[in-house]
Amino acid sequence: MPMPPLRSGHWLLFGAVAVLFFSMALWMSRQPDHAAPLPWLVDWQEAVIEPLSEEDLTLEQLAELAPGELWLQPRPEGPRLVYRSEQDREEGSWRLEAELQLSDSEHTSLGKALGKGADEQPLSADMLEQLGGHRVAVLNMVPMAEVSAARLAASIGPPRLRVRTGDGEAWVYPQQGLSAHLVDGKLQLLHLVPRESITH
C-alpha cells in the first residue's frame, strides 16, 4: 500500500523537531563540565582552614597533616620561623609555607641565635617538637600543577568577593580568612590568615 504524500504541515513538523534537537545539542555542548573537588582541600576546611581562621591552628596540628621542616629565616624587621612542606596530591604537588606567631622576646632570642648571618637555617626535629604548640599566623599554599578555578570553587564554594588584580583576579573568603589568587582561571596561590586580618 503506497504511503500518502507528505503535506506542507508534515514538513513543518519535521523541521521544528530537527531545529529543537539541534538547539538542544548546541546548548548541551556549551554547558561547563562539572569540576571535581579536591578531596584533601575539602577535608582541610575543618582540619586547617577553620582553626587557622580562629587563630587556633598549631604547628603540631599542621605537621601531622603535612610533614615538613622548620626554618629560621632572617628578615630586616626581625627573624621569622617558617615551616615548609611539599605534598603530593592526585592533581600534582603543592608547596606549603607557614609562618609561626612569635612574641617580642622570642623575636629577640631568635635574632641572637641567628647572629649576623644572612642565610636561612634549618632547625632540628627536636626544635620542631618543642615549638609544636606555637600558633600558625600565615599559611601559603602554591600548586605546582594546574588547578582550575572551577575545582577550587567545587572544593570550598564560590567566593564572597572577587577583586581584579594586575595580572588576574583574587577570590576572597573573609569568614575563612582565605584568599585565592588566579591568573587566566588557574590557581596560583592560596593565602590563609586569621579571619580578623581580613574582616577588620
Number of strands: 9
Low-confidence stretches: 23-32
Largest sheet: 9 strands, antiparallel
Spatial strand arrangement across the major sheet: 4-1-2-3-5-9-8-7-6
Order of helices and strands: HHHEEEHEHEHEEEEH
Instruction: Tell me the helix content.
Output: 25-40%
How many discrete domains? 1
β-strand amount: 25-35%
Average pLDDT metric? 85
Shape category = globular
Q: What would you note in describing this structure?
A:
By secondary structure, the chain is of the alpha+beta class. It has one domain (39-199). It is 37% helix and 28% strand. It is built from seven helices and nine strands. The chain has a nine-stranded antiparallel sheet with strand order 4-1-2-3-5-9-8-7-6. β6 and β7 (169-173) form a beta hairpin. The longest helix has 23 residues, at 8-30. It starts with 7 loop residues before the first helix and ends with a helix.
Task: List descriptors.
200 residues, alpha+beta, 28% strand, globular
List the helices and strands and how they pair.
Blueprint: H1 8-30, H2 39-53, H3 59-65, E1 69-73, E2 80-89, E3 92-100, H4 104-114, E4 121-122, H5 125-130, E5 136-143, H6 149-156, E6 161-164, E7 169-173, E8 178-183, E9 186-192, H7 196-199
Antiparallel strand pairs: 1-2, 1-4, 2-3, 3-5, 5-9, 6-7, 7-8, 8-9
What's the short story on this structure?
The chain is an alpha+beta fold. The protein contains 7 helices and 9 strands, in the order αααβββαβαβαββββα.
